[in-house]
Amino acid sequence: MTDRPLRADARRNQERIIEVATEVFAQDGAGASFEEIARRSGVGSGTLYRRFPTRGSLFEAVYAEQAEHLLEPRPDDPDPWRALETWLRRFVDFIIGKRAFAEEMAHDTDLVRDVRRRIYATADPLVEAAQTAGVVPDDVTADDILRMLSGIGLADYPAPGQLDRVVGISLRGLRRTA
What digits encode the pLDDT tens for the residues 79-99? Predict the structure, then answer.
């Protein structure tokens, strides 16, 4: 993608392509058809390829868009546990569907490294605040929690609501009660 500002119509097309690509990758996996993404976006294949000349560039754009949602300002909750739990549930939402990205995004790109760094820069202070408040054990790290929830988020859940229940069980197990 180029760095110059986009015209309003080009920006709308790009946003629509990213929105549709997110849905199609989640539904069809990493091998999703560029033609299907273009068709459902309402743009020609040429427009799609001009904005995203490679599958990797489109994956990165989708990944970056989802990461921005995750990394929005931390929850502004005076209760350290609720702030941590709110953000961790957003993290699980971010992880869901990442199987489609696994092959493309497994590469250690600048974007992936930057997002990883920003995730930890967000999670570390939330975990530390919860530890200071005595609701998370001192020997647990943000890395421990994120790895646990990543594994949970990438598993298959045949029953509706099962993922949310499993996340809830994990978070209850993490929380230290008086």
Answer: 999 999 999 999 988 887 666
Q: What one-character-per-residue DSSP string does 20-59 give?
A: HHHHHHHHH-TT--HHHHHHHHTS-HHHHHHH--SHHHHH
Amino acid in the structure at residue 21: A
| Alpha-carbon span 95 to 66, nearest angstrom | 10
Inter-residue contact 152 to 167 (CB < 8 Å): yes
Q: Is the pTM of this model over 0.70?
A: yes
Select the CATH number that applies to the domain covering 8-53 from these four: 3.40.1350.10, 3.40.1390.20, 3.60.140.10, 1.10.10.60: 1.10.10.60
Cα distance between residue 154 and residue 98, in whole Å: 7
Reported in sequence order, the residue ranges of the chain that DSSP labels E, i.e. its strands, are none
